[in-house]
Amino acid sequence: MKETLLLTKHMRENPEDSHLIDIYEKNNGYNAARKVLKENNPGEVIEEIKDSNIRGRGGAGFPTGVKWGFLAEDQERYLVINGDESEPGTFKDRILLERDPHQLIEGIIVTSFASNISKAFIYIRGEYAKPARRVQDAIEQAYEKGYLGKNIFDSGKNLDVVVHLGAGAYICGEETALLNSLEGRRGEPRLKPPYFPAVKGLYNKPTLVNNVETISSVPWIINNSGKDYAKLGVEGSTGTRIFSLSGHVNNPGNFEIEMGSSFGEFIDTFGKGIKENKSVKAYIPGGASAPWFKGSQLDIKMTIDDVADAKSMLGSGAVVVMDQDTNLVLAAKSIVSFFAHESCGQCTPCREGTTWLEMILDRIASGRGRTSDIDLLLDVCDNISPGLSWPPKMTTICPLGPSAVSPITSLMGSFRDEVESLLPKKVLINNE
Amino acid sequence: MTWDTKLIEKANEIIELYPQKRSALGPLLYLAQEKEGYIDDDSVVEISKLIGITEVQVRSVASFYTMYKQEPTGQYLLSVCKSISCEINNSRELINNIKEFTGLANNETDEDKTFTFEEVECIGACGGAPAVQVNYETVEGVTPTKALELCKYLKEEVPKVIVADELQEKFGGVKSFDWGIEDNSGTSSTAPGFQIIGTAEEK
Asked: Which of A7, A136, A275, A412 stands 20 to 30 A from A94 (CA)?
């Protein structure tokens, strides 16, 4: 098993100066944008993206070409790049922003042309100050060359790009919350319908919201072809994907691979095994929102559909490995605390439920649990996401609340003994 | 602090970037934080005038986001991650060490305004767990011992500009990925260092 480098090739080959426009151009940079603006019409570009079968890399996995095709007609349309990467375990957009900003900008140019857009925003989480500085530098270089601004590449088209810094709110990764935030409002998700971004997005205008990794893939697809891209990976999960590997592995990092191999192989090959030669107790296949798999489930294939069939999700591509000695109650509490902190507060089941889950887990972890706590946890979960099914049913505007349920159902489904061992034993009357 | 002409000029430049004035609210709040170390009442008034919304609307947004501070911060904002990858890689011991050194509990600032300490949720440095940010510059693979050395260094050397590369070399360990490009830019306030807001600084 080895990496297939499309998105991370340029940065690997030019580790010290991949962020400079001259180096990027020496390596075929901006030729996709130049070609498209000279030779193609927007429809052809959208067809190319549809041919690639690329699915969004933010977490939901929606087909990108189809999304572009949905964008409503209007004089004023916007492109918003979602760089609010905050799903615990995920750090793959960070490397793309920090080390290959021009690839993203070129993707933005092509995408804007395909969708007749002249204003794009890159929303980057506030904690990514350094990546944001790199992207801003790169934008300024691109303006100087005439690749951004008025009459780009002498095509008669205009395109302005603005980097907008977030301010520490996970919920702004949800696309409608991101748009509220970009409008200078609280990052609260909007109701869909009517607020589908493709129809009523930024300033109520049709807006394309795409993830950093998705748009960074566009130049490669144009330079080669949609069909070439579709040959990589497996059906339903074409192309490459950057997985962020962290937790108890010897060699954490970002690894770009074709989807389709097993998690076990991935963890062994790139993670170089588990620290201190321990075994895997559990792992998270796609960020903190995803239900966990057991150490005995390492043969599951890393594709969107295989992971979904096994009742979890590939999500943001963040694999977090927990070894045999991990205190899973504390691990679950960490994830639930995250969601409790990040709940925007609009919907009662999420705002109240996540906080209750956190408190109950806290008392179990610290040895003050009650025998009734397992039922209570599951009851609170059921109020947030009725039936505790996968994919989760929702009582809330966005999926944040149901995401907080994932670690609890994982814990109770596969590791109930571990929780029970922390609870007081039931007192048996007439003990016999 | 009321805003001087220079600051208002900068604010208007930022407002120009957006099709609607209100979009500039976020960056303008950072402008206030850079000057004062938090979102002070005078800045709320200035911002509300500049973009034409009420003071309550400004405060409502400012209080929603973790990175806008509602209370004065120290010179160095220490943000220690406690989310899943850091949690299982011993961030709790690191947090305890910093608490002990600074004498601060979560979200507290010391009397001489040197440190503000906070436990934060995922900062996207999971491959370099446990990770710390100083004024929003990331340092990865920080051991509990190195965390103490970092605090001591900040207290004694009092660096003006916080540069991630420099702190990483002195106090960091395993990284999320090879950082590759050499960098000497950072920030000298508790607002993240970024050109558009005017908070990015070269060392």
From this structure: A275
d(CA A320, CA A27): 34
**Is the pLDDT higher at A416 or at A431?**
A416
Residue B115 token pair: 């440190």
Subunit contact B83:A338, Cβ cutoff 8 A = yes
% of chain A exceeding 90 in pLDDT: 96
Nearest to B22 among A94, A184, A335 (CB): A184
Number of Cβ atoms within 10 Å of the Cβ of A50 = 17
Q: Distance (Å) from the C-alpha of residue A281 to the closest C-alpha of chain B?
A: 13
Partner-chain contact B174 A252, CB within 8 Å: yes
Instruction: Tell me the fold of B5-62.
Output: Arc Repressor Mutant, subunit A (1.10.10)
* Cα distance between residue A177 and residue A191, in whole Å: 10
Report the complex ipTM: 0.98
Among B22, B53, B196, select the one facing A136 at the smallest CB separation.
Answer: B196
- Find the CB nearest A15 among B64, B180, B185: B180
Q: Which residues of B touch A15 (CB under 8 A)?
A: 178, 180-181
Where are the domains positioned within chain A? 9-230, 236-323, 328-420
Q: Hey, are the CB atoms on B26 and A164 less than 8 Å from each other? A: yes
Taking the C-alpha atoms of residue A405 and residue A415, their distance in angstroms, rounded to an integer, is: 15
- State pLDDT tens for residues A176-188: 999 999 999 999 9
Contact criterion met (CB below 8 Å) for A154 and A121 = no
Q: Which of A127, A167, A322 sits opposite B124 (nearest CB)?
A: A127
Q: What is the identity of the amino acid at B69?
A: K
Q: Residue A89's closest chain B neighbor by CA?
A: B126
Q: Give the residue from chain A lying closest to B197, CA to CA.
A: A165
Which pTM does this prediction carry?
Answer: 0.97
Say whether B176 and A91 touch across the interface (CB within 8 A). Answer: yes
Residues B182-202 as b or e (16 or more Cβ within 10 Å = b): ebebbbbbbbbbbebbbbbbe
pLDDT in tens, A62-78: 999 999 999 999 999 99
For range A31-44, the mean pLDDT? 96
- pLDDT of B137 reads 98
Q: Which CATH class is domain B76-195?
A: alpha beta
What CATH number is given for A328-420 in this structure? 1.20.1440.230
B49 sits in which H/E element? helix B41-51
Closest Cα in chain A to B177: A253
Nearest to A398 by CA among A180, A118, A251, A89: A180
